[in-house]
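Field notebook, page 372. I keep forgetting to write these up properly, so this time I am using the form the group agreed on. The chain and the ligand, 2-acetamido-2-deoxy-beta-D-glucopyranose, are recorded exactly as supplied. Prediction of the bound pose follows.
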Amino acid sequence: MELFSEREKRKCPKRAKPRFSRQKPCGAVVEAQSNALAFALMLSCLIILFVLSLLSLPIPAPDTPTQRPEMKNSTLLIWWLPFGSGLPLPDCELNYSARGCTVTSDRRAYAHADAVIMHHRELIINWEELPEKPRPPAQKWIWMNFESPSHSGFLHRLDGMFNLTMSYRVGSDIFLPYGYLQRRRFHGNRPVRVERHRGLVAWVISNWSEEQERVQFYYRLQPYLHVDIYGRDFRPLLNDSVVETVSRYKFYLAFENSCHTDYITEKLWRNALVSGAVPVVLGPPRVNYERFLPADAFIHAEDFKGPRALAAYLKHLDRNPALYRRYQRWRRDYDVHVTSFWAEHFCAACQAVQASLHVNKTIRHLALWFES
Ligand SMILES: *[C@@H]1O[C@H](CO)[C@@H](O)[C@H](O)[C@H]1NC(C)=O
Ligand SMILES: *[C@@H]1O[C@H](CO)[C@@H](O)[C@H](O)[C@H]1NC(C)=O
Ligand SMILES: *[C@@H]1O[C@H](CO)[C@@H](O)[C@H](O)[C@H]1NC(C)=O
Ligand SMILES: *[C@@H]1O[C@H](CO)[C@@H](O)[C@H](O)[C@H]1NC(C)=O
Ligand SMILES: *[C@@H]1O[C@H](CO)[C@@H](O)[C@H](O)[C@H]1NC(C)=O
Ligand SMILES: *[C@@H]1O[C@H](CO)[C@@H](O)[C@H](O)[C@H]1NC(C)=O
């Protein structure tokens, strides 16, 4: 998976005009006056490209098997199954073409496991269950968390304990967002379908709490705009399916439960984008969203003076199909990938461990980094 800014940097030697990035393309070096300067710039471009290729460890799509026979086989031990999930553990080769990765939850593997992954939620309520035996010298402990800092307690107790971080946050050692866009191999011809007979705005919310910013925003929006609300205390989902329900609407309120850098969840990727609705987002600032998707793929609550102006704009788009379709145009070039908890996470972690067997480091300031 790639971030938009990284994608553009990687492609820059070929493309003169990056579409989503405001950065100067590396291709600009050809105009440099001095050959020496041009060479130095080109070299740094190459180094940046190389480093970027090391930083992102995409899970290969199932149809592109990786042939890396030199890779050591790695064992990843899951110390606690996240949320006690009873899901079967993945076969990383079968499911993600990731070779040489063994994922186990059998604690007897501790002494020879290359890495132990600990999920934050269980870690903070089960301190007494941490491994008693000393950590094998080359073993890495991986801190895994997909909740935002607002919902992650006791972070300060974790300083100096882990070797790698895994989260939705860009800059994690193992970075895995809730979803991402993948460029389509054959693109350009798919017509953008916009079904008629759609409702206007849907919202699915399971945890209604008056203190939340998203609920407060809804109260201010509701005098100007009718929103069909689904969830525990509201209408039941059609067929128990968020995607089936939301696919009958033009817009979806992808409001995050808390506002933090990169914290963009399945509310955007699955609830809105997979359902074919245009997301109206409330969360980190617009520039943060633009790291992950084109600027015209979403509407940000922050783009407007207030809820009233937002409501007026959505109604305006409702009456102007051509304008509305602009928000769907990106679909010709990209598919949405929603990461699959937790199989994809374990295989991505195992692959990252394989690729960093000789790395020796400790995360000294975990709380400081994650909360920033
Ligand atoms: C990894 O495991 C596979 C299957 O168990 C085995 O065929 C292969 O030789 C192993 N590779 C290494 C480098 O140990
Ligand atoms: C892995 O692949 C097998 C066989 O295709 C499938 O039955 C299983 O559901 C997959 N597991 C996951 C977690 O994707
Ligand atoms: C990692 O570094 C520490 C301190 O520098 C050292 O004691 C330890 O042996 C190293 N571990 C490995 C696997 O290189
Ligand atoms: C629901 O929201 C409240 C207030 O933000 C929060 O304290 C609580 O942890 C949330 N519950 C769940 C299950 O997410
Ligand atoms: C509910 O699911 C069933 C089976 O997947 C499907 O045939 C039916 O059309 C769905 N109903 C609605 C209202 O979408
Ligand atoms: C992992 O972190 C621990 C705790 O600081 C440290 O002792 C150990 O050397 C680190 N191991 C590796 C392989 O980085």
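OBSERVATIONS:
- Residues 74-178+341-371 form one domain.
- Confidence is low (pLDDT under 50) at residues 6-34, 45-67.
FOLLOW-UP: compare against the apo run.
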